[in-house]
Amino acid sequence: MEWTGARYADRPTVEVRTWIDAPPEKVWALVSDIELMPDMSEELRSVAWLDGATRPAVGARFVGRSEHEALGSWQTTSHVIECEPESVLAWAVEDPAAPSAVWRFRLRSERGGTELAQWMQLGPGRSGLSAAIDRMPDKEQKIVFVRLREFERNITVTLARIKQRAEA
């Protein structure tokens, strides 16, 4: 049976949503505090603003350090590409014109609380996953599928931790 899944060049995406029993302003305070994110994430180890920035704004940059059992440790610089308080926060990893990934939190007032979605897109720029694909091009679709499932699991954990803090 031939593997039929997304290729990296397809810019595959993952999105996970949760409902939080807290107003958008409280949820925004958590998702926009990027220095809290290592406590919420399975891979992210540290985050720090660059260039004197202290909060998200379009054009602000931050460095993130991550770790993965199979991929090792790495550092990336991200650029905030969307920032609407209590609504959306998005960043492009590395080159904003051809990012290795794009990440987005979207908040929506719903049923007296907040629907929080976290979305991510692989590519189109090269990433650590690109090296694995280069080594095993015949397994590209499986590599992409497995990594997207990891992101889905990790995002689910992140949203659960944000929900727990917001509802506390």
Short description:
The protein has 168 residues and is an alpha+beta fold. It is 29% helix and 36% strand.
Series of H and E elements = EHHEEEEEEHH
What number is the mean pLDDT? 94
Strand count, sense and closure of the main sheet?
A: 7 strands, antiparallel
Domain count, please report it.
1
> Could you tell me the radius of gyration in angstroms?
16 Å
Strand order of the largest sheet: 1-7-6-5-4-3-2
Going by CATH, the homologous superfamily would be: START domain
Q: List the total number of helices.
A: 4
Q: Which CATH-level-2 architecture?
A: 2-Layer Sandwich
Q: Uncertain spans, ≥5 residues at pLDDT below 50?
A: none
**CATH class label:** Alpha Beta
Overall body shape: globular
How would you characterize this protein structure?
It is a single chain. By secondary structure, this protein is an alpha+beta fold. The chain has one domain: START domain (Alpha-D-Glucose-1,6-Bisphosphate, Chain A, domain 4, 2-Layer Sandwich). It contains four helices and seven strands; from the N terminus they run E-H-H-E-E-E-E-E-E-H-H. It has a seven-stranded antiparallel beta sheet with strand order 1-7-6-5-4-3-2. A hairpin with a 2-residue loop joins strand 6 and strand 7. Helix 1 packs across helix 4 and helix 3 packs antiparallel against helix 4. The model has no long low-confidence stretch (mean pLDDT 94).
Any descriptors?
Alpha-D-Glucose-1,6-Bisphosphate, Chain A, domain 4, 7-stranded antiparallel β-sheet, alpha+beta, 36% strand, 168 residues, globular, 29% helix
